Amino acid sequence: MEFPFEISARDGRARTARLSTLHGEILTPVFMPVGTQATVKSLTPAQLEELGATILLANTYHLYLRPGDELIAELGGLHKFMNWPKPILTDSGGYQVFSLRSIRAVDEEGVTFKSHWDGSLHRLTPEKAVAIQENLGADIIMALDECPEPKNYEYNRAALQRTHAWARRSLDAHRRPDQAMFGIVQGGIFRDLREESAAYIGSLKFPGNAIGGLSVGESKRETYEVLDWMDACLPEDRPRYLMGVGTPADLVEGVARGMDMFDCVLPTRLARHHTAILRHGRLNLMGAAYARDPLPVDPSCSCYTCANFSRAYLRHLVQTREILGATLLTIHNVSLLLKVVADIRSAITAGCYHQIREEFKPASSDVTPDS
């Protein structure tokens, strides 16, 4: 199966395109809400469709541990299991294995890790990561990579070699023609490593390429520098996926540097911590100033939450720990990010991307990105 990526408009390095999959078409730039355990926390699939989500991300590591990829395959695959008819992307599980600090051993063949759930030992290799994702049945799957600390040169050099070898083995192990596999570029904040990785991963002819290992402690300036290097190095005719980045300003700046796809847990995580994302800033609803505030979270927003509920009511919900509070704030946060990428697509098509970029211009290039 082919996965056409058809660029329809450009404005500088920003571009809009259509990516076709078995479960539907994806207009890029696109933000992918994260459904770690086959659910976007506090939202139903129907609500996500109403908000305009066209693709979700699910987590290989967590679904492998619970309920198990073989069980999901037995029940018809991830789309049927979670009742989501549109495209799904699954990561390889590598980021979670390394970020949860559960590693027992890393070698050239793979990684041995301990489950954060019950302490059991597991072995993840490129071949196993592919097999798990083939059982899950996502439209886009990821090659296994090693995600190191971004500022340790020697560690990044060694991890890069493993990531490249694992990318080739992942391709060799991949059997399902209805899934597009993306490779992942690593290399920390080091230009020579990033350019070497982009050249190698790009040469493997993956249907798409991802940039990993960012928004993990480096400054915003360093993040944007890496993206500038990647824009010059990665093939233009394939989608570019910036992993784990999702503030409005970072979406705008990423697109300005040639990125097409984004995901982040930020909108759901902040909602569970009583915080609304605004186009410019955030609103912590626990603040006493909102106790009698009749305004919606964002008077300029037309989402279900802003159209129907006041800040005072939302503050009451989060203070009393009512589940509805997280649901309503998640609706707003996800809606806002989907609206931002829709505005981005419109601005590129109209040839006025500089205007939206000026609107979201970061206050400082040295602020650490949200994670």
Secondary-structure map:
Elements: E1 5-11, E2 14-21, E3 24-28, E4 30-35, H1 45-51, E5 56-58, H2 60-65, H3 69-74, H4 78-82, E6 88-90, H5 94-99, E7 103-106, E8 111-114, E9 121-124, H6 126-136, E10 140-142, H7 153-173, E11 180-185, H8 191-203, E12 208-211, H9 220-233, E13 240-242, H10 248-256, E14 261-264, H11 266-272, E15 275-278, E16 281-284, H12 304-308, H13 311-319, H14 323-350, H15 353-359
Parallel strand pairs: 4-5, 4-14, 5-6, 6-10, 10-11, 11-12, 12-13, 13-14
Antiparallel strand pairs: 1-2, 2-3, 7-8, 8-9, 15-16
Helix pairs in contact: 6-7, 7-8, 8-9, 10-14, 11-14, 13-14, 14-15
List its traits:
371 residues, alpha/beta, TIM Barrel, 2 domains, eight-stranded parallel β-barrel, three-stranded antiparallel beta sheet, 15 helices, globular, disordered C terminus
Q: How would you sum up this structure, described in words?
A:
Helix 14 (323-350) runs antiparallel to helix 15. The strands form 4 sheets. This protein has an 8-stranded parallel barrel, surrounded by 5 helices. The radius of gyration is 20 Å and the shape is globular. The longest helix is centred in the C-terminal third of the chain and has 28 residues, at 323-350. It has helices at 45-51, 60-65, 69-74, 78-82, 94-99, 126-136, 153-173, 191-203, 220-233, 248-256, 266-272, 304-308, 311-319, 323-350, 353-359, and strands at 5-11, 14-21, 24-28, 30-35, 56-58, 88-90, 103-106, 111-114, 121-124, 140-142, 180-185, 208-211, 240-242, 261-264, 275-278, 281-284. Helices cover 42% and strands 19% of the residues.
